[in-house]
Design a protein that fits this description.
By secondary structure, the chain is an alpha/beta fold. It has 13 helices and eight strands. A hairpin with a 2-residue loop joins strand 2 and strand 3. Helix 2 crosses helix 10, helix 5 runs parallel beside helix 7 and helix 9 crosses helix 10. The longest helix has 20 residues.
Length: about 280
């Protein structure tokens, strides 16, 4: 590729509103799920292991309090330093991470505690070891079991919500997305590589995929967009976290007033209706 072609591509990418949103969602200073959890909740007590293979360090689960309300929290960990990110697999869960999350959801169901998950991951880990240990089965089981949990459930997409890896933690009564977060079936880079055999067309793919918060809300994939401070939650963390905490309080109060059978039925109906469309002729 010539320098001129490269320059044209970079200018097109820089001018793309969709790509600007992606850069905000991937901002290196954007708070990860565990930081949001630390700012919003108290008394977090972590639970380790899936009781089958091991403890996935990319996924954290535990009991905590949202004000006076006892809840079960699930969030993925990315890590701050390069060494920590490698140890936590850059936030991409293995099957044992999803099994640990499901184990904790079942504990929450047993004790009648709402489940709140925080999601910022590009997808489930696609490595050979993960596939050998049943990555697809673990995700599928989570989808099924989350759909019929008999406690209120809320999911928050705080950064990237990628593919089935994110959905395995997001089959919830309320799916919230931060204003600058993303929710997608495939990353723009992956889409561009498949469609045009050129990852450099990622800005074009980002426009076509419709993965920003307003777009996925219009498609019915999320229930509410949580506004961020004017400069973004990565700049005003305390303010952004405080507002998110208030939104969680409101949704949890509403969900707890619903009878359990009605709660589960409404959740299942909601996901059956997503992406439903009709054609003529």
């Amino acid at each position: 590729m010539s320098e001129q072609d490269t320059g044209v591509k970079l200018q097109a990418q820089a001018a793309s509103p969709a790509w600007e949103r992606i850069e905000r969602a991937r901002h290196p200073q954007r708070p990860y799920p565990m930081e949001l959890i630390e700012r919003i909740f108290t008394d977090f007590s972590e639970i380790h292991g899936d009781r089958a293979f091991g403890d996935d360090e990319a996924v954290a689960c535990g009991m905590a309090r949202l004000g006076a309300e006892e809840v079960m929290l699930i969030g993925n960990r990315k890590g701050g330093t390069t060494k920590e990110r490698v140890r936590r697999n850059f936030g991409m869960p293995h099957p044992e991470g999803y099994r640990k999350a499901l184990r904790c959801m079942k504990i929450a169901e047993k004790f009648g505690r709402p489940v709140i998950s925080f999601i910022d991951l590009p997808g489930a880990y696609p490595g050979m070891g993960a596939e050998e240990r049943g990555q697809a089965e673990a995700i599928a089981r989570n989808l099924r079991e989350m759909a019929r949990l008999r406690v209120p459930t809320i999911s928050v997409i705080s950064g990237e919500g990628g593919s089935g890896g994110a959905l395995a933690l997001a089959v919830a009564d309320r799916v919230l997305i931060l204003e600058n977060a993303l929710y997608f079936v495939i990353s723009p880079e992956g889409c561009a590589s498949i469609m045009w055999n050129d990852a450099g067309k990622k800005a074009l793919a980002a426009e076509a995929l419709r993965i920003s918060a307003p777009e996925v809300a219009e498609l019915g994939c999320v229930d509410e967009i949580v506004p961020e401070p004017p400069d973004g939650i990565h700049v005003e963390r305390e303010l952004g976290s405080g507002f998110l905490g208030s939104v969680l309080h409101n949704h949890l109060r509403e969900l707890k007033q619903m009878p359990v059978d009605a709660l589960v039925a409404a959740r299942q109906q909601k996901f059956r209706n997503i992406a439903r469309f009709y054609t003529e002729g």
